[in-house]
Write a structure and sequence with these properties.
CATH class of one domain: Alpha Beta
Radius of gyration: 15 Å
CATH topology of one domain: Glutaredoxin
CATH architecture of one domain: 3-Layer(aba) Sandwich
Distance between the termini: 48 Å
Number of helices: 2
Shape: globular
Order of helices and strands: EHEEEH
Largest sheet: 4 strands, mixed
């Protein structure tokens, strides 16, 4: 089977056949392990209100390390809480597809890249500092005091 950047077939974190994990917003999400996309609501024009935009997020990881797993878990939780039904998460495993790192200029992992809504934003780390992630993704104006 030939793998491509847009249609890589991989296994889930439990090493089972790749099957989408259904969430409450009906967005299927698969954990780190290769390039995967999760469906969300149809894209809305950028001119619409900020609350109705579709979010296209790409998480770069290196295998199934604790930091990669934590980053995916934190991202999934944040998206369900703040963007329910309006997001797509693509997980790119750079161990399996290292050539994809140059496209988004990835120098550290895990790295989250927000493709849509524009402008493109990057956040490096396991996304455990929710206040910084919210500000970095433009979901909140000022950081939460911690």
């Amino acid at each position: 089977m030939k793998k491509t950047a847009s249609k890589a077939k991989t296994k889930t974190m439990k090493k089972t056949a790749a099957k989408p994990v259904k969430t409450s917003s009906k967005a299927a999400v698969k954990p780190p392990g290769g390039a995967k996309k999760t469906p969300a609501a149809k894209a809305k024009p950028a001119a619409k209100a900020k609350g109705s935009e579709r979010w296209n997020l790409r998480l770069y990881v290196a295998g199934q390390t604790p930091r990669s797993i934590t980053a995916f878990s934190n991202l999934k939780r944040l998206c369900e809480e703040r963007l329910a039904g309006r997001y797509v998460i693509e997980v790119v495993d750079l161990v399996k597809q290292p050539q994809l790192a140059s496209g988004d200029q990835i120098v550290a992992i895990p790295t989250l890249v927000r493709k849509l809504p524009e402008p493109i934003k990057r956040i490096v780390g396991d996304l455990s500092n929710i206040g910084r992630v919210l500000v970095g993704m433009d979901l909140q104006e000022t950081p939460i005091a911690q």
